[in-house]
Amino acid sequence: MRCTSPDHKPQPRKRNRAACERALTDAALSLFSEQGFETTTTREIGARAGCSEALIQRYFGSKAGLLIAVIRNEECDRAFTDFRDGPIAQDLTHELRNSFSFLMRHMDSITPRLRVLMARALVDTDFRKEFAELPKRGLLLAYLTMRLEACEKKGWIEPGTDISAAAFMMITLCLQTSFIMREAFDIPCEERTRTAMDMLTLCQRGIERR
């Protein structure tokens, strides 16, 4: 019979990297929202996450890198794959409206993250450059581009249209109407929705087949 030495107690199971990264980004978002980016320390983030403070540097490079990861976590959401794989609507008008409705819901769901990110981008030039690149590299742009390409194959979009640019324009339009108009100017929902639909109509006129 094998004996176990009292000096060799079972060690608690360590969380894998993905679990630690998620715990750190969740803790960071919570603390950044409560007390601001500048006053939050990496030690506080590690403590709330239940992870080593050193993992922030290893996984994210810096506290600012952790802030970027906060927004990227949303792209792992099941809703993203549902959006990517969902059926294309019966015509371009309905497809654009359906896609834009998804974008609006997504922006609403990440409002706490956007508040933290925007506040940091206003005062940190280097971070602002990194933040500006997020939509261009994210899955949201890739998936929206895929859906517009499917519309192009159906003959709904003018040949030669820059599909990626059209998708990026829709994302920035959504950010403007669903977040900035609300947070910066306190514009009522009905007015923001009406403005968004008017601008989406102009977008459609610019890309639909003539």
UniProtKB/TrEMBL annotation:
A Gene Ontology molecular function term of the record: transcription cis-regulatory region binding
Protein keywords: DNA-binding, Transcription, Transcription regulation
Start-end of DNA-binding region: 41-60
InterPro entries registered for this protein in UniProt: Homeodomain-like_sf, HTH-type_TetR-like_transc_reg, HTH_TetR, Tet_transcr_reg_TetR-rel_C_sf
Coiled coil: none
PROSITE patterns: HTH_TETR_2
Name of one Pfam family that matches: TetR_N
Domain HTH tetR-type: 18-78
PANTHER family per UniProt: HTH-TYPE TRANSCRIPTIONAL REGULATOR BETI, HTH-TYPE TRANSCRIPTIONAL REGULATOR RUTR
Name by which UniProt lists this protein: HTH tetR-type domain-containing protein
Native source species: Gluconobacter wancherniae NBRC 103581
